């Protein structure tokens, strides 16, 4: 678990980092056939624990290095995935599972309703903030409940086997409002595979690898924002931080 501590409601946000690396063809398949086994080790950390270096080694030989840096109102993720083998890797995407219950005031200490956080969570549809449950909420899938939003650049056969919305997200942001409504916690990756509302008071912006050819290296970037409750400012910041992804969103 990756724990982010700060002066915000709940005081800590925990992330299963990483929950899984995944193969394509996952939308209607047994989850155990999708997951690619991996192990993660801590490579380095500064004394203040504001900068961590991690290394994941997948069972197919792929390595992913992670540099995670805390700043005033964000956590920055810089990843490098490399396939040192002579065989193509089917690692197409991965899941950081962010637990938002305590931040949003809907954790176990506040309610037994595991889905109370939905009404405080959002994505963007048709260019506007859409709180959950969003319009056209899907209810059928191999596994229920939950909700997946697949961007236009990702095959709909390759996402989480939870209910898949017909709606395409306007951008790669997913987030929630704090218990006191003063802050927004928002997640974004470039490139991203899907947005996902999970089943353990969690939100996902899952990042995309797209497979790795023999010898291939790819870079992935992510942000976890802890910002003032100012949606236009959040959108402007996302556009500035993820110019390539923002251009693709259009």
Description:
It is a single chain. The protein is globular. The model has no long low-confidence stretch (mean pLDDT 97). Strands 4-5-6-7-16-13-12-9-10 form a nine-stranded antiparallel β-sheet, covered by helices on one side. Strands 1, 2, 3, 8, 11, 14 and 15 form a seven-stranded antiparallel β-sheet that branches. The chain has helices at residues 31-34, 231-241, 243-249; strands at residues 2-5, 12-22, 35-36, 38-45, 51-58, 63-71, 74-82, 93-99, 121-125, 128-131, 147-149, 174-177, 183-190, 192-197, 202-208, 217-228. It is mainly β and 250 residues long.
Topology:
Elements: E1 2-5, E2 12-22, H1 31-34, E3 35-36, E4 38-45, E5 51-58, E6 63-71, E7 74-82, E8 93-99, E9 121-125, E10 128-131, E11 147-149, E12 174-177, E13 183-190, E14 192-197, E15 202-208, E16 217-228, H2 231-241, H3 243-249
Order of strands side by side in the largest beta sheet?
4-5-6-7-16-13-12-9-10
> Briefly, what CATH class?
Mainly Beta
The assigned structural class equals mainly beta
Count of DSSP H/I helices:
3
Summed over residues and divided by their number, the pLDDT gives a mean of 97
Integer-rounded radius of gyration: 17 Å
Total strand count, please? Answer: 16
* Low-confidence regions: none
Q: Secondary-structure element sequence?
A: EEHEEEEEEEEEEEEEEHH
Count of structural domains: 1
Measured distance between first and last alpha carbons? 34 Å
CATH architectural type? Distorted Sandwich
Let me know the largest β-sheet: 9 strands, antiparallel
What gross morphology would you assign?
globular
Q: Percent helix among the residues?
A: under 10%
Strand content: 35-45%
CATH fold node name: Beta-galactosidase, Chain A, domain 5
């Amino acid at each position: 678990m990756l724990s982010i501590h700060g002066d915000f409601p709940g005081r800590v946000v925990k992330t299963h980092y990483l929950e899984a690396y995944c193969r394509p063809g996952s939308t209607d398949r047994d989850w155990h056939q999708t997951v690619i086994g991996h192990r993660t080790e801590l490579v380095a950390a500064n004394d203040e624990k504001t900068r961590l270096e991690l290394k994941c080694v997948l069972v197919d030989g792929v390595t992913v290095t992670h540099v995670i840096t805390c700043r005033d109102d964000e956590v920055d993720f810089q990843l490098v995935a490399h396939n040192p083998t002579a065989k193509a890797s089917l690692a197409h995407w991965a899941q950081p599972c962010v637990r938002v219950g305590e931040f949003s005031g809907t954790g176990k200490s506040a309610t037994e309703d595991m889905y109370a956080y939905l009404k405080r969570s959002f994505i963007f549809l048709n260019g506007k903030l859409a709180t959950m449950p969003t319009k056209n909420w899907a209810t059928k899938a191999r596994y229920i409940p939950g909700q997946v939003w697949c961007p236009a650049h990702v095959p709909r056969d390759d996402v989480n086997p939870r209910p898949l919305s017909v709606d395409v997200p306007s951008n790669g942001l997913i987030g929630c409002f704090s218990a006191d409504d003063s802050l927004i916690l928002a997640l974004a990756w470039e490139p991203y595979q899907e947005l996902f509302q999970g089943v353990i008071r969690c939100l996902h912006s899952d990042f995309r690898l797209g497979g790795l050819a023999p010898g291939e290296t790819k870079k992935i970037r992510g942000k976890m924002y802890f910002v003032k409750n100012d949606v236009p400012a959040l959108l402007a910041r996302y556009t500035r931080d993820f110019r390539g992804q923002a251009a693709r969103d259009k």
